[in-house]
Every structure is written in structure tokens, then in C-alpha cells.
Design brief:
This protein is α+β, with helices and mostly antiparallel strands and 76 residues long. It is 29% helix and 29% strand. It contains 1 helix and 4 strands; from the N terminus they run E-E-E-E-H. It has one helix spanning 37-58, and strands at 5-10, 14-19, 24-28, 31-35. The relative contact order is 0.10.
């Protein structure tokens, strides 16, 4: 019996795939973690949040608003 999996996403050193048993696997180099879909959603949310934090650190946003010189319309 051959081993089959559906790759959901993959790159050079990591992949996410679903095995025939329905588990979602996160493979990084030699590490292969199997989880159910609920656990995968939690792990994915943690990754997304970490990416957001890293993006804020790498690209700090400094928006200054000059209210004195801003064009505004008066509403009566």
C-alpha cells in the first residue's frame, strides 16, 4: 500500500499536507507534527499573529496628522 498525501502548501524547507487519516501535518526539515483541524487552526492563528507582530517591528508605521493645516468642511 503506497503512502499518499494532499499537499496544501509547501516550500523548500517546510510543507503542510493532509494524510489519508485526515490529520494535517506541519513538516519542517525533519520535524513532522500531525494534528487535527481544530489544533491546526490554533497553530495557524499563532503563526499569523507572529507575522503581524514581526511586520510591525520591521516596518514601523509613524503617521502624523497635521490638524492645523488639514482641509475640512464644516457641517451645519
Amino acid at each position: 500500500m503506497g503512502y499518499k498525501a494532499e499537499f496544501l502548501s509547501q516550500a523548500e524547507i517546510c510543507a503542510i499536507y493532509q494524510c489519508l487519516d485526515g490529520h494535517i501535518h506541519l513538516k519542517y526539515r525533519t520535524l513532522d507534527i500531525a494534528m487535527d483541524s481544530c489544533d491546526f487552526h490554533q497553530v495557524a492563528e499563532v503563526f499569523v499573529e507572529a507575522l503581524r507582530v514581526l511586520q510591525k517591528i520591521e516596518e514601523p508605521v509613524t503617521e502624523e496628522i497635521d490638524l492645523k493645516n488639514m482641509d475640512t468642511l464644516m457641517k451645519v
